[in-house]
Amino acid sequence: MIKESAGDRLLLSLMYVGITVFALVCLIPFMTVISGSLSTEGSIIRNGFTLLPKEFSLEAYKLLLKDSTIYKSYGVTIFVTVVGTVLAMIVTCALAYPLSVKSLKYRNSINFYVFFTMLFHGGLVATYLLISKYLGLKDTIWVLIIPALINPWNMFLMRNFFNSIDESIGESAKIDGANDVYIMFRIMIPISLPAIATISLFYALAFWNKWFEAMLYISNEDLFPLQYLIKRILDNAAFANNLASGVTAPGYIVPTLTSRLATTVVTIGPIIFLYPFLQKYFVKGLLVGSVKG
C-alpha cells in the first residue's frame, strides 16, 4: 500500500475544495431560476433576480399547470424520449457491433459512408421533402423519432467501445458454437453497459429537447413536445395573459416572467432526476472510445 505524503493530501484537499466551489457556482443560475419561479412578478420587477425569493408565490405554477396543454406535451415528450432512446440504441448497437468485427465484408466502405453523413447534409429543403412527402411522417409523433434513430457520432462511440473489448472473448464464444447474434446480445451488450448508459443519456437528452422538428412538421397541438411548447410560450408573452383570463383584481400583475421560469423548472426536472440513476455507468462511460480509435 502506497502511503500518501502531506503534499499529496494537501493537493487532494485543494482539488476537492476547487471542485466543490465550481459545483456551487454552477448551481447559482439554476437556483436563481427556481427562486424566480417561486417569486411574485412584482418582486422580480422591484428587486431583480435573487437566490432566495423575496416574496414567495406559487401563482406561476398554478397558472401553468391548470392548462391541459402542458400535460399533453409532457406525455408526448416522455413517449418520444423513452421510445426514441430505446429504438435508437437498438439501431446504434445493431450497426456498431458489425462494424467492429474486422472480418465484415465492406466494413471500411460502410464506415466511410456513415462518416460521410457527418460531413455533408442534404439540406433543409431536401430533408423536409423526404420526411413530409415521401415518408409521410408529417403531423405524426414518429416524425420526432424515426429521423433521429441513428446518430453517426454516437454510433462511432459505440463501435469504438466494442473495438476496445478483447477479441479473444468473441473468438472463444465462436469456438463454442455461438453465432454473431448470440455474441452481441449475450456477451457484448452486458459488457458494454457503461457505454450503452452513456450514449442512451446522449440520445435521451436529444429527444427530450426536440423542438425544431416539431416546428417544421407538426401543426396538431396535441402532438407538440414540451420544448416546442416552451418556445411558443417564450415567443408569445401573451400566453400568461390567456392563462390568467378572468383575473380582474386591482393591482394584479400578470406573471409572464415567472411563468417562463416555472415552465423551465417543470420541463428540466425529470431529466435532472435521470442523472443519479445513470451516474455509476456515466463515469465509466466517459472513456468510451479512448482505448481504440
UniProtKB/TrEMBL annotation:
Residues 74-266 form the ABC transmembrane type-1 domain. It is a multi-pass membrane protein. Keywords: Cell membrane, Membrane, Sugar transport, Transmembrane, Transmembrane helix, Transport. It is found in: Cell membrane. GO terms for biological process: transmembrane transport. Gene3D superfamilies: MetI-like. GO terms for cellular component: plasma membrane. It comes from the Bacteria. The chain crosses the membrane at residues 12-34, 74-100, 112-135, 141-162, 183-208, 261-278. Belongs to the binding-protein-dependent transport system permease family. This is Multiple sugar transport system permease protein. It comes from Paenibacillus algorifonticola.
